[in-house]
Amino acid sequence: xxxxxxxxxxxxxxxxxxxxxxxxxxxxxxxxxxxxxxxxxxxxxxxxxxxxxxxxxxxxxxxxxxxxxxxxxxxxxxxxxxxxxxxxxxxxxxxxxxxxxxxxxxxxxxxxxxxxxxxxxxxxxxxxxxxxxxxxxxxxxxxxxxxxxxxxxxxxxxxxxxxxxxxxxxxxxxxxxxxxxxxxxxxxxxxxxxxxxxxxxxxxxxxxxxxxxxxxxxxxxxxxxxxxxxxxxxxxxxxxxxxxxxxxxxxxxxxxxxxxxxxxxxxxxxxxxxxxxxxxxxxxxxxxxxxxxxxxxxxxxxxxxxxxxxxxxxxxxxxxxxxxxxxxxxxxxxxxxxxxxxxxxxxxxxxxxxxxxxxxxxxxxxxxxxxxxxxxxxxxxxxxxxxxxxxxxxxxxxxxxxxxxxxxxxxxxxxxxxxxxxxxxxxxxxxxxxxxxxxxxxxxxxxxxxxxxxxxxxxxxxxxxxxxxxxxxxxxxxxxxxxxxxxxxxxxxxxxxxxxxxxxxxxxxxxxxxxxxxxxxxxxxxxxxxxxxxxxxxxxxxxxxxxxxxxxxxxxxxxxxxxxxxxxxxxxxxxx
Length: 576
Hints:
The protein is of the alpha+beta class. The protein has 16 helices and 28 strands. Strand 9 (about 105) and strand 10 (about 110) form a beta hairpin.
C-alpha cells in the first residue's frame, strides 16, 4: 500500500531473547529522521527503551545508507525520496517482564511496541502494517484488525503502539459483552498453575463478563467503548499490575496473591480498573496527551482524575456486578483509607503536585519517598470517594459527572483541561469546584469521616501497643539495618538515616526487628548504639507514645433509615 509503513517482527528464535525488526517505507525526506519512543502511554516514566536496541542498519535498493545518530534515541538517514523503499533492520533485547516492556523466552513473547517500533518522521499518521514470524505452534494475539493475508493493519503509528502483542502456544477464550466480541489469553508462567486456576475458579470468564457489563452500566452505555477487546493476563508466581489500551489491557497477577483470602477479589478489581480505562483515560483523555509526545515527559495536572477515579470505582464495580459482598468492599475501602492516613507524604505533596510530578517521583520512589510524596492513585481515590458522597448529598453522583464528561469529551475524543473537570462538577453542585480546588492544592485531608457518616460508616483507629519511633528495620546479611525513617519522627530527631546498622538499644544487643518494640520506653531518652560507614556512634532515642497502626471502616452503632438508604444508593452507584 502506498504510504504504508511495513513492520515485520521476527520472534522465531525466542531462546536468544532477541526480536528482529524490519521497517520498510518510502522516505518522504532526503534527511530522513527516525526515533524510538522513550515511554509508553499509561506509564508515566521515561524508560529509554533505546538501551535494548542494537545493530541498526538502513538500506535503499540494496545500498547501505549513511546513518548519523542525532540524539540517544534518534537517527538521521541519507535517503533518496525518489529512490525506492528504505529498509531499516535492528534487534530489540526482550528480557524485562512487565506490562510496559518486552519479554521473550521459550514459553512466550510479549512486546510493548513503544519499545520496538521506530517512528518514521513524516509517517506517524500513515497506516502501519504488521507481520510476525513465529516459532512453530505459536500464535500471536494482537488487538488490531487482521487482513486475509494474516497481517494486521494499524491506522497510524499511535494505533500500532497502542497494540501490545502476546505470542505463544496459548489458548484463546472468546466471549461477548452486549454483542461486542472479547478475547482472553493467559500466559501461565508455571504450567501447573493452569489446572490449579481453572479448577479453583471455573466461573472466571462469567465473572469477567459481569464486570464488563457493570462498567457499561456505570457509564450509562449499552455497549463497551471498544468494538473488539483483548485481555492479556500474565499469571506469574508473584506480581501485580496492569496497563490500559484503547482495545486491550495487559495484566500481571501472582499465584501467591490468588492464594490469599482476598486474592480473587483483588484480581477482579484489577480487571475492573483496566477495563474501565477504555472510557476514563483512553477516550476521556487529558488534553495534554493529545497528541502524545513519545520523546519527553508532559506535565498532566489531572492524572489524579484519570487514575484516582478509576481506583475508587474498581472496588465498587465487582460489588455492582454481584461478585463481592458489601462487607468485603468496606474492608478493602478501609484498608485504602488506612494506607492513606498512615502516609506521611500526604502532608507534604498536594494532589495536583503528585499528578504533575509523576514522571520524576511516583515511579522513582526511594526509601525517603513515603515522607515527601503521596500517590495520585491513592489520594485521587480518596478525593473521588469524597466527591461522590458530596454529590450524593445533593442528589447527584460521581457516575453522573462521568457520564456528562463522556458525552461532552470522551465519545468525541476531545481532550479535557482541568477547567473542564471543575465545570462538570460545578454544574452538578454549585460551590463544588472551589472545594475540589482546595482538595487539589492543600495538604489538609478532606473530611472523609463526615462523608462516611452520611452512609452510616465510621473510620476508627487501632492504636499500636508499642511506642512510636517512625522507623522500620530489616535484616541484611546478618545485620539489623534501618529501612525507613519518617520525617519529623523520633528516629529522625535521634539522627538515624536509612542504611544505618543498629547494634544495641538500652543496653541490649539488637539482632532482630521484633526485639525493638519490647525495649522501647515512651518519652524517655534511651541510648542507641549504631554504625554508619563502619564508624560506631551512640545516639539518644526518645520514642513517642503509641500511634495508630491502622484504621478500620465499620458501620456506626446505630444506622438511621436515611443513612441506610444513602448507603444502598451509593453501593449500587445510583443517584441519591
